[in-house]
């Protein structure tokens, strides 16, 4: 039963990465490449009807985490309190940047909210990549000092960074060279994903430029992925042990590289949506590969005193997990129907929708 809810949680997070990921990427494109008003409107129109619904998936993930893995929920929400609050504020600024821009037609007003939307999107992409890096690296569970736990075995708290900026320090920080590197990978990947969504949903004058951008960024992404695989060995001596023991799991890394390789054909695709499919393959494959590599751990311990948090020692009771299953399928059916209706209503190109205009 624990494994079922783990798959559900990872599935919800994967959907969130794909859907809100293109929102973040579009915001970064908006920040750096949308110079003319028509291009800015095209980008906001491409994501306008979808972004708030896409964010529901992160709330759903939090709900499943609270219900199915309460110990992990308590540990991570206290230990990562500072970056979670920062992410919350960034989500707020990103939302009001979209909603407030069209309230007053004044150049200074519009410029301020354009920057709020773009910078918040950039930092969100960076912070979510850093968050993934923290989970891969692990945390000092129990706040061990000199071989002795100073707190309960599942408790930790991290400052933004430590003085050494090292992922192998005794007292870790949220940001170090390893987690920051994964944050940069996240920014590049979501820029590509967002650009593909804009091309898919608009006839913007930026589209040809964005296809060339995706092609160039894909080389950067490929290099960053290979570097990340190399430096992973500094964090985990045997990072591929689960893949060696269960060869069927190589499906996920293959999916990841299929997504990258497919994107090199972005300039020759006949249909605008094809590139978005390949960037989706990369994001889902990369996230799944990361989750599989540390399984059954969900939050590794960096000390030898306290055990890592796993899907088994953090799960709720058997009765609660079983009772929640029937309600899950009801909720899943409602969500699927809602998203089918939403994406059918807003199918096709979105250039003329005029999102945010008042």
Summarize the structure.
This protein is 68% helix and 3% strand. It is mainly alpha-helical and 358 residues long. Strand 1 and strand 2 (148-149) form a beta hairpin.
- The ordered H/E elements are HHHHHHHEEHHHHHEEH
Mean pLDDT: 90
Q: Tell me the β content.
A: under 5%
| Approximate shape | globular
Helical region count?
13
The secondary structure category is mainly alpha
- Percent of residues in helices comes to 55-70%
Query: Sheet bearing the most strands, described?
Result: 2 strands, antiparallel
What is the terminal separation in angstroms?
Answer: 50 Å
- Low-confidence parts lasting 5 or more residues at pLDDT below 50? none
What strand order characterises the main sheet? 1-2
Number of strands: 4
- Computed Rg: 21 Å
Description:
Helix 1 runs antiparallel to helix 4 (56-68), helix 7 (107-137) crosses helix 8 (177-201) and helix 11 (251-263) runs antiparallel to helix 12. A hairpin with a 2-residue loop joins strand 1 (144-145) and strand 2. The protein has helices at 2-33, 37-47, 51-54, 56-68, 70-79, 81-100, 107-137, 177-201, 207-235, 241-245, 251-263, 274-294, 318-345, and strands spanning 144-145, 148-149, 297-299, 309-310. The radius of gyration is 21 Å and the shape is globular. The model has no long low-confidence stretch (mean pLDDT 90). The N and C termini lie far apart (50 Å). It contains 13 helices and 4 strands. It has a two-stranded antiparallel sheet. Strands 3-4 form a two-stranded antiparallel ribbon. The chain is mostly helical.
